[in-house]
Amino acid sequence: MSTAPCLFCGIVAKDVPATRLYEDDEVLAIRDIAPRAPTHILLISRRHITSALELTDADGPLLGRMFAVAADLARSEGIADDGFRLVSNVGRWGGQSVDHLHIHLMGGRAFEWPPG
Ligand code: AMP
Q: Taking the complete model, does pTM exceed 0.85, yes or no?
């Protein structure tokens, strides 16, 4: 297990700057620093969870909150009607580069399926 400080824990704690769009006691939403779509937002759990692989039934309310916040942001960003992509990468082959649970909210253009 890595002992390096977690980047997203640093953002949650405000030790690392980020463009914060929403936060509550469980979830933080920020703009991705390297957007891959006109709208690219990250929904981050306030608690450190390494990835979706660590989730249990007890995290149901947290996930409900993350998806509900994503839906609200999709509406406020004006991407709800055309549709958008929600994705959580897990592990090396899944393309995860930050080991702290997050969901990408991406929109403003069409996406391919399956992803590359
Ligand atoms: P993933 O590769 O799925 O783990 O997603 C991590 C995301 O975090 C990438 O889309 C990065 O562009 C984004 N990211 C990395 N550092 C920062 C940062 N300091 N602020 C905002 N987003 C970041």
A: yes
Q: Are 71 and 107 in contact (CB under 8 A)?
A: no
Instruction: Write the CA distances from 80 to 20, 83, 109, integer angstroms.
Output: 20, 5, 12
Instruction: Please tell me the CATH superfamily of domain 7-107, with its number.
Output: HIT-like (3.30.428.10)
Whole-number Å distance, alpha carbon 69 to ligand 1 midpoint, is 18
102 is catalytic: yes
Q: Which of 40, 48, 102, 104 is catalytic?
A: 102
- Distance of CA 108 to CAs 28, 41, 99, Å? 21, 12, 26
Residue 109 has pLDDT above 70, yes or no: yes
